[in-house]
Amino acid sequence: MFGVGQPVPRKEDPRLVTGNGRFTDDIHVEGELHLAVFRSPYAHGRIESLDTSAARAARDVLRVYTAADLSQLGGLPCRAVLKDRAGNDCFIPHRPVLAEDSVHFCGQAVAAVVARSRQAARDAAELIDLQVAELPVVVDLEEATGPDAPVLHAQHGSNECIHFENGDEQAFARACADADHLVEVRVINNRVAPSPLEPRACLGHYSDGRYTLYNPSQGAVAQQAVLAKAVLKVPLEQVRVVSPDTGGGFGIRGEVQPEAVLCLVAARDLNAPVKWLGDRSEMFLSDSHGRDNLTTGWLALDAQGRIVGMKIATLANLGAYCSAVGPFVPTMAGGRVTGTVYKIPALYHSVRCLFTNTMPVAAYRGAGRPESCYIMERLIEAAALELGISSIELRRRNFITPQDMPYQNHSGVTIYSGEFAATLELALENAQWSGFPSRKVRSKAAGKLRGIGVGYYIESSGGGPQEEARVTLNPDGSADVVVGTFSHGQGHATTYSQILSQTLGIDFDRINIIQGDTDQVHFGGGTGGSRSSQMGGIAVKQAGEAVALHGKPIAAELLQSDPERVRFDAGVYRVDDTGAEVTLTDVVRAAAEMGGEALAQTHRYDRGAGYTFPNGAHVAEVEIDPDTGEIAVVAYTAVDDCGRVINPLLASGQVHGGVVQGLGQALLEFARYDDYGQLLTGSFMDYAIPRASQVPDVDVSFHEVLDPNNELGVKGIGEGGACGAPPALVNAVLDALRDRGVMAVDMPLTSEKVWRLLHENEAQGA
């Protein structure tokens, strides 16, 4: 009942829901000091003066830091080192911990104050006087490409970080020349603020020449490497990172931000622990944002509705600097699935990554793949209208089929499994697609507009190709599992315990998952890119198998048999021809008695090249009140192929979370700057995330098509909802609005926007 495939409730939950979680701000060290950050109120300018004298003189203030105090440090690095088609490196500007000679976005850290209390530090930060010679500001993507656009990084000479290209533009042109139909769609992928439940926090400590950082993350090992090698410039063993319970990640927890560095440096200088806790408004200003693309797509088709070519041209906003993965997200990450689940003979993909005076953009749930799926599904709908056929039929005609696999797409990666047509049919059946016309009639009688839409997605998952686990079996029957992934809400303590319980036949409740402390976790890729089950899960399984194999000679000695005759299964070593057997616990105890140590093995799993490709069909049904523009999502159906489902309960929760974040982007969320680079959405009064009343009951089911390249057959599930929901919802809204002549919309589809579209169209019709 606790093995793979069972809907086991999360073993983490009793501790968390009873208030016994241990988050970063719950950690207190005697004598801790507090840090506050002074941030630039200007979006762009040269620093003329920075007067910190009043702050230094304020009560209980111990230290004020400016860039001049950090000259020995490195900058915050970007690991996305890309080349353009001509072999030129992308431009990665130096990103200082504190602004040096100039500021490039509103909210950039300029100075830091350390005081005896949080309030004293914040009050003193208010006393800092920054004088700036303001420079012209650019926040709009199209303006950033213009010849007269303000240039953020003068040494580079333009706002373009890199022009990424893939495919053959001339082949697309030839396909267009022979095509019977050509459709064009322009879409906005709106900027979003990730907004994890737990605001960022960190606690720095320094003792005996060693730094310790307590910090929410998506993997402590990666942060340790960045801090030690790139920023502090000390040997790796001199930095310890501990990530306790973490309240959400969504990509941004993979970044090292200035506050973590400042706490460590201050702890060293003042010989005392230093804590920083951000408030929600600070998070809107200083957490990396997500998405923010402007994309135009062209789809060429023959008379029978077969796709013959596609071109995608994107302007991608990086913000003022490159985040850790900034230029990688819209190029390589999104580019791996351009064209998604359809056969496209000729494809050209262009992405111009641009700097603007805004908060840097990083990975956000899906990281490039939702953007690719969104433009593809919008093009499919537009093409179906052009051809006068249903978009369902158009998809069927162009799907990659199981017979086509293994299928190498235009990015050069290979899709090995998937039954896209069958997954779509199951979603249509579950959504009662055929009954929609009668539901539409009922809505019309009630004065409402009703629409239905599909979003078919595929994403590439797996992240880094290696992961490590160490399994230790203790004489008392318990097991300790150290793993390099990091659970920040996914439920790894449950799923990994299921995998190991099935592998070794040991008690599910006696398995202890250890993560997030670099003193115990020495290798690991963390959690991101839906990689944990297929990387950490397999590492745990194989480490468990290695432990069982390691115990076989001991079992053979206990059984008075040759090791070759001993077989292990379900927690028992057996000699089949004699019927003799001993349990794994017996072997563990014997090992402890023989050598005084627990039975343990470390295994590093390497999947090799390639990725897995989770995919799915999502169907949204909406009802719109034309008098107010309000959209009600009245039904939502998701059928996902994530390979083997380790735990259906937890997998469904991942779908729910992704769908809600996709719904937020589609209907509500927009991190908006004005023309002067001021953030207009700096609180939840201005930035809308979905409320419970706006979220429908999501009907989740799975179509398990196992991945043939890993022994669990898993693919990943964490990001599918964020990929499928935006196109499904926007297509549904467009389906409803076409009854009133509205043919184009852009996210987010707020009630005001919908109302204006309806009434502007009525006015034009009149």
What does this molecule look like?
- It contains 19 helices and 28 strands.
- The chain is an alpha+beta fold.
- The strands form seven sheets. It has a seven-stranded mixed β-sheet, with helices on both faces. Strands 7-15-14-13-8 form a five-stranded mixed β-sheet, with helices on both faces. It has a four-stranded mixed β-sheet with strand order 18-26-27-28, with helices on both faces.
- Helix 6 (220-232) links the parallel strand 10 and strand 11 (239-242).
- The mean pLDDT is 96.
Estimate the mean pLDDT confidence.
Answer: 96
Quickly count the helices: 19
Strand order of the largest sheet: 3-5-1-12-9-10-11
**How large is the share of residues in beta strands?**
15-25%
Characteristic terms for this protein:
766 residues, alpha+beta, seven-stranded mixed beta sheet
Short account of what is shown:
With 766 residues, this protein is of the alpha+beta class. The protein has 19 helices and 28 strands.
Please specify the SSE layout and strand pairing.
Layout (H helix, E strand, L loop, with lengths): L12 H5 L15 E7 L5 E7 L1 H5 L3 E5 L36 E2 L5 E7 L2 H8 L3 E6 L6 H4 L15 E8 L1 H10 L2 E9 L11 E7 L2 E5 L5 H13 L6 E4 L15 H13 L3 E4 L2 H7 L6 E9 L5 E13 L9 H7 L10 E10 L13 H19 L3 H8 L8 E2 L5 E2 L4 H11 L5 H10 L3 E10 L7 E8 L5 E5 L8 H13 L6 E4 L17 H28 L6 E4 L2 E4 L4 E4 H12 L3 E8 L8 E10 L6 E11 L6 H20 L30 E5 L17 H18 L13 H15 L1
Parallel strand pairs: 1-12, 10-11, 14-15, 20-21, 27-28
Antiparallel strand pairs: 1-5, 2-4, 2-6, 3-5, 7-15, 8-13, 9-10, 9-12, 13-14, 16-17, 18-26, 19-20, 19-25, 22-23, 23-24, 26-27
Helix pairs in contact: 9-10, 10-11, 10-18, 14-15, 15-16, 17-18
